[in-house]
Every structure is written in C-alpha cells, then in structure tokens.
Amino acid sequence: MNLKLIRRTALVTILLPCLYLCTASGTFLYRIHADNRAQTAISLATMSAPTQAQSILIISPHPDDETLACGGLIQQATKSGASVHVAMLTNGDGFRVAVERQYRKLHLNPDDYVRFAALRQQECYKALENQGLNRSHVYYLGYPDRGLSFSLQGYYSEREESYAPSALNGPGGSLTLRPTMLEHDTNTDDINLRMTWHPLGNVSTVTRYDLRQSEYFNAGVRWTPTAIAGGPPNAAMLPQVESSDVSSQIISQSVTWSPMARLYVQGSASYTLAKTTTNCQLVPDSKNNYWSGSLSAGYAIDNKTDLTATYTYYGVNNYTQQGAPYDTTTPGADIPNAMGFGLNTQEHTVSLALTRALTPSMIWNLRYAVMNSQTTGALQDQSGGFNDFTAQMVSTGLQIRF
Predict the structure, then answer these.
(1) Alpha carbon 207 to chain centroid distance?
(2) How far apart are CA 364 and CA 356, in angstroms?
(3) In what order do the strands lie in the sheet with 83-88?
C-alpha cells in the first residue's frame, strides 16, 4: 500500500472534524454577537428612582441573578428606605459542571449538590447584605433547578366564625323552640406530595396528590318566648358539637408552556374523591366525586398590560347517599330529604381579563365572563331545574398598594 496515500488519508481524517468544529463554533459565536448587537438597539423606558413609599419584589431564577440584573436598583432602593424583598426560585444547584469544579471531582453524589446549594445561599446572603439588604428579606422557594424533583408539604388551618342574632331571629311569641347558630368553626389538615418535572426549558409539569381532612363544629342556642327581650339565657345555650367530617383525596396535574417571552399557556385538571360523615339525623352521610379543569393563556401586551383568557370546567355525576345512589329508573321512588351540593352538575366558564398597571402602586383590571350551569336527571335534580342558569358578568377593580 502506498505510504503517501495513507498519510494523506490520515491527514484528511483529522482535518475534516477540525474544520467542522471550527465552522460550527464560528457560526455559534457570530450568532451570539449578532444577538448582542440587536439587543443594544433596544431602547428601554427610563425607570424612576425608588422612593421610601415603594415596595419592591425581585424574583431571581438562581442566586446571583438578582445582583447581576438588579444590583444597582437594590442599592438605590435600600438607600432611599424602600421595602425590598428578593425571592429565589431555585438554589442554583442543578449545574453539574459548576459542582464538579467547586469540589474537584467527577463522580458526584446528592450530598455534593446539597452542599453546593448551601454555599450559593450563603454567598447570595453576603452579596445582598453588602447592597444594604437584610437577609430576612431574602426567600428561597426551593424549586428544582432542572429535571425531576419531589416535595412533601403539609398545612393546618383553623377558621372561627361567630354570630350575634338579634331578637328578630326569635320565634316572635310562638311557643315553638327554634335553634339559632352562634358559632361555626372549621379545622383543616392537609398533606400533599408534589412531583415537578421540566422536560424542556420552556415546559414544566406538576403532579400533586392531596389528602385533606376537614372537621366542622357548631354551637347554637334555643330561643324561647322569654328570651326575646334580653337575648338567650345561658340555660338555653347548646354545647359545641362536631356536625360533620369531610375527608378528601385530590389528584391534580398541570402543564405550563412558555413558547415566547410574552406568552404562556397553562392547563390543569384535578379529580376529587370526597366523603362526608355526620351525626345529624336529617343530613345523611354522602360521597361526592367530581372533576375540575382549566385552560388559560396569558399575553403581556407591554410592560404594564396583560391579557388573560381562561376556560374552566366542573363536573359531578356520581353523588351517592348512605352508600347507595339515587334511583332514577323506578317510578315513584322515594327521594331523600337531603341533597348534595352541586348534584349531577356540569359548569362551564369562559372569561377574558385585562390588567393594566396605572402606576407602580395602582393596578386596574377589567373582566368579562360567561358561565353556564346545568343539573341533569329528573329524580337526581331535586331543584326541579331552578338551579340551571346561564350568566354573564362584567367586573372591574382598582387595587392600590400602600
């Protein structure tokens, strides 16, 4: 075999990949240069200096982005006495190369990413303190930097309502005893597991499961003819009792897509399995499972105006009472005295909203919505069709922030 031919072949084999890489790299760098030149031609509106009366919220994708993009604004705002808060969406711990360089190792484990996240948090705290911001005004939301993540959350809420019925609520001289509610308390426990996934840079999905328990407590009084003038005597007070217990399991899924900087599209759906148990004789135990969903799109017309279109759906058709569904086939079948809220109902709502920031502290909104609600089934719809409606709504509001 000709040795010269072998050399030439080897040289061409080496040069061709090098030529390709050089051409691709040059094209990439030229595009970046062209994009940067295009950005310099954009003229941004002049922003007025912050004042003491303003409250400023800065949302940063990663620690250090707030300083790179808004460091000057933060310094001006803190010096003027404005209230400045910074929310970090992530800890910036999803960049593998940065973690490898920081700890000088190629084989990383989960602890390395956690250590790197803590390091970036401390660096961010120090940078913001140098700009005059207290670290109590810095919030880390803990969303994943990229890929798949799981989070477990829980919350407890308590709501207390009290009523002061007047003498007009009494029987007005009738000898019949009539109960009146004085207290209505609600306690809710919720624990949820959430999975977040970023399959693409502009697409995110959230899958969530909630287990929720709500307890309702009531206390009332029995009015008598002698109690009308001065209000209910203590002897007429009834003890607080647990009127009902509602347990729910909720499975929900949402997808958000941002095809461009000014536009986003979001879809969500959830299915709820609800069970109500009660000790009240006139209110039977029940089950009510239902679907709900929404599809919305938002577009930023400019830096002060947003337009949002939304469609929502609610549907339930499997309400059961005391473990048995209503009988819709047997003529003359007994219908229980109690009925579940939203029994065999489908609701559709379409809305369009316009939001405009008139000033940094004043936001105006205009909303138009059309809603249709239908309850079906002759025996299942105890309302006789009176709950069916089609409604149109126009609303406006002005929000002023102090």
Answers:
(1) 12
(2) 5
(3) 55-60, 83-88, 138-140
Helix (H), strand (E) at residue 285: none
Coil, strand or helix: which one is 362? strand
pLDDT tens track for 244-283: 899 999 999 999 998 887 889 999 999 998 888 887 665 6
Instruction: List, as own/partner pairs, every contact residues 370-376 make where C-beta atoms lie below 8 angstroms and the sequence separation is at least 24, other chains included.
Output: 371/347, 372/347, 372/348, 373/345, 373/346, 373/347, 374/345, 374/346, 374/347, 375/342, 375/343, 375/344, 375/345, 376/317, 376/344, 376/346
Q: At residue 80, what are phi and psi to the nearest 5 degrees?
A: -80, -10
Q: How far apart are CA 125 and CA 135, in angstroms?
A: 6
> Domain extents for the chain?
55-140, 147-400
User: In sequence order, what DSSP letters do the residues of 238-269 get, joined into one string?
Assistant: PPPEEEEEEEEEEEEEEEEEEEETTEEEEEEE
Question: Which CATH number applies to 147-400: 3.40.50, 2.60.120, 2.40.160, 1.10.3470?
Answer: 2.40.160
Q: Which of 385, 389, 356, 344 is nearest to 370 (CA)?
A: 389
CA–CA gap between residue 92 and residue 146 (Å, rounded): 9
- Give the other-Cβ count within 10 Å of 1's Cβ: 5
**Range scoring the smallest mean pLDDT among 21-25, 166-170, 383-387:** 166-170
Q: How many CA atoms lie within 13 A of 178 on its CB side?
A: 16
Report the number of secondary-structure helices (H) and strands (E) in the chain.
Answer: 4, 15
pTM equals 0.57
- Alpha-carbon span 229 to 238, nearest angstrom: 19
CA distances from 220 to 165, 176, 249, 392 (A): 10, 16, 31, 38
- Contacts with 20 (C-beta within 8 Å, 6 or more apart), sequence order: none
Q: Is 244 left (phi over 0), alpha (psi -120 to 50) or beta?
A: beta
Give the span between the Cα atoms of 319 and 5, in whole angstroms: 84
Q: pLDDT tens digit string along 38-52? A: 777 777 777 788 888
CB of 309 closer than 8 Å to CB of 315: no
Residue 2's alpha-carbon distances to 8, 9, 10, 14, 254, in angstroms, are 10, 11, 13, 19, 66
Bigger pLDDT: 353 vs 357: 353
